[in-house]
Amino acid sequence: MKLTIRIMRMWEHTNTDSTVLYxxxxxxxxxxxxxxxxxxxxxxxxxxxxxxxxGVIYTIGNFCDTYSQEKKYRAVEHPFWxxxxxxxxx
Length: 90
Hints:
Number of helices: 1
Helix content: under 10%
Shape: globular
Distance between the termini: 12 Å
Number of domains: 1
Strand order of the largest sheet: 4-1-2-3-6-5
Order of helices and strands: EEEHEEE
Structural class: mainly beta
Strand content: over 45%
Largest sheet: 6 strands, mixed
């Protein structure tokens, strides 16, 4: 699956109880105006972190769809978010 998205906002995701870094999170919007959250895991940061800039349009593929029933600390109401995997392509 591939998505063409624009990165709206990026920030570092840390644990709320400490300063443990989980990796960068980002908000993206697709061509239909759907807004979704994404994350780059800490162990993938060196590969992808410098590839993304806010306001730029990207086509990404081979990512992991993730679903959570828990809406605690979510930036948007969309039920899915994406996570970058080793095979993710930009």
